[in-house]
Amino acid sequence: MTVTVDDRIEREVYVPAPIDRVWRVLTTPEHIRAWYAPGGCEIDPHPGGRLRFRWDEHGEFHGMVERAVPDALFRFRLALEPDHAPSDPGEATLVEFALSPEGPGTRLRFAESGIRALTVPDDAKAKHAEYATLSWTSALEELAAIAAASHN
């Protein structure tokens, strides 16, 4: 049986909040815990910086920041497997958030790519793509709500 795997997940959301607020919610641990990693987060948002996202039910996922341009772009590699720092491109996907001003708010574009290059069987790639699509969609909705309601 052949399994078709999307290589890229893309989402876009308009956030009725200024770009600097969206950036803070996107990149600071206390906010990331609310919209993405409830078990905690450690992040050094500079190129080469390490990051870790924790979930009680899934474990701790490691990554490395590739690019961070305040109020514009946040890109990092994120391990496919918990409790493992990726050392090979086939062990991680590329996650990217691009921000741009739009009227009084912010357009947030998200992409996770490199799914086909993962060194796991195709059915595991497809399962990751399916789960990631649902979880990122939910996370982006939560991020947008937090940024819109936040005043810090």
CATH class: Alpha Beta
Portion of residues within helices: 25-40%
H/I helix tally: 3
Q: Which stretches are poorly predicted, pLDDT < 50 over at least 5 residues?
A: none
Largest sheet: spatial strand order: 1-7-6-5-4-3-2
Distance N to C terminus: 51 Å
Structure description:
Residues 17-146 form the Activator of Hsp90 ATPase homologue 1/2-like C-terminal domain. This is Activator of Hsp90 ATPase homologue 1/2-like C-terminal domain-containing protein. It comes from Streptomyces javensis. This protein is an alpha+beta fold. It has a single domain (8-149), classed as 2-Layer Sandwich (Alpha-D-Glucose-1,6-Bisphosphate, Chain A, domain 4). Helices cover 29% and strands 37% of the residues. It is built from 3 helices and 7 strands, in the order E-H-H-E-E-E-E-E-E-H. The chain has helices at 19-27, 29-35, 122-149, and strands at residues 8-15, 40-43, 50-55, 59-69, 73-79, 92-102, 105-113. The protein has a 7-stranded antiparallel β-sheet. Helix 1 (19-27) packs across helix 2 (29-35), helix 1 (19-27) packs across helix 3 and helix 2 (29-35) crosses helix 3.
List the helices and strands and how they pair.
Elements: E1 8-15, H1 19-27, H2 29-35, E2 40-43, E3 50-55, E4 59-69, E5 73-79, E6 92-102, E7 105-113, H3 122-149
Antiparallel strand pairs: 1-7, 2-3, 3-4, 4-5, 5-6, 6-7
Protein name: Activator of Hsp90 ATPase homologue 1/2-like C-terminal domain-containing protein
InterPro entries: ASHA1/2-like_C, START-like_dom_sf
Organism: Streptomyces javensis
What's the short version?
It is built from three helices and seven strands. The protein has helices spanning 19-27, 29-35, 122-149, and strands at residues 8-15, 40-43, 50-55, 59-69, 73-79, 92-102, 105-113. It has a seven-stranded antiparallel beta sheet with strand order 1-7-6-5-4-3-2.
